[in-house]
Amino acid sequence: MATKAKKDPSAEMKSLLGPLWSAFSLKNVWELVVDAYNEVYYIDNGKMIVLDKVFKKSTELDQVVTRLLAFHQKKKKSEELSYFFNLDQYTKVAIVLPPLAIKGPSIVITKLPIQDLTFDDLIRFKALDSEGKNVIEKMLASNKGFIVAGNMGSGKTTMLNLLVNGIPQPNRVVTLERIPDLLIKRPHVCRIQSQTQKASEMIDLIGVAERMRADYLVLSDCVGPELMPFMEMVRSNCIGVMLTTGESVLDTIKRIETKAVVSSDGMNLEEVRYAIAQAFKYLLFQEKTAEGVRQVSSISELVYESGELKLKAIYKR
């Protein structure tokens, strides 16, 4: 009996991306951006490289969009103008359609690192030093909740992957993800993904996770409305891990406080600060500097004291 030939993943990707494939396939390219059919560029080792004449006319870009949505088993709908999905475990896609996208369809394709990174790799890249590694290892061994924060492009998601993979065994990890952008390679993991990326659905998923016997519950992207339900869940049932965005440590704390107040059922700021300190013991902040250097800049303990949320630095670059 003849066996079916396996599909070549790279050939399938080449067929999907069409004119974008040659740039996407370059090893150092980690992000490919289309702002209009005649405005295409990619990010190569942090530098923007403009591409000329990738599409000869707008209909060629439309065809790529149609293929991508068909792969995602979605049809264009007049009321649905943005799509976020994965092509595979290592490739994220964001598509925005007119009239939201004024110049025509806009696409961002992001490649996640295929190679498994370690903390020693981060030391080699100068994103971390040996002292920072020791502090992180003690933080993980403490079995306490922690927040991973950083500015845009700082590598905070890569750090979250490392930390989740480093959670001591045999703890069971449950993740809540708007888009499946985590690369978790460990046993005892249940990954739960939002289907609509709506805030109400993320709140519902927290209720689902409560029944999944999590030792650790990971929120891969804190947007806001789900924050207080998430913190209430981890304060009562398990250990919480959360990823969020901030321009500095202070900015991160202020954003979390604001989101927590808004997403609570009438809690005041002092009550929210107490809840944050109960849910999370540590805050790891990673930043991308003005020079483009990505590094873990600080790790702090969160301490509630006399109505204030205070930070006790245990590591600083």
UniProtKB/TrEMBL annotation:
Domain Bacterial type II secretion system protein E: residue ranges: 99-226
Q: Which Gene3D superfamilies does this one have?
A: 3.30.450.370, P-loop containing nucleotide triphosphate hydrolases (3.40.50.300)
Q: Name one GO molecular function term.
A: ATP hydrolysis activity
Report the domain of life of the source organism: Bacteria
A Pfam family hit:
T2SSE
* Assigned protein family: Belongs to the GSP E family.
Identify this protein by name: Bacterial type II secretion system protein E domain-containing protein
- Per the UniProt record, the source organism is Bacteriovorax stolpii
Q: What is the lineage of its organism?
A: Bacteria, Pseudomonadati, Bdellovibrionota, Bacteriovoracia, Bacteriovoracales
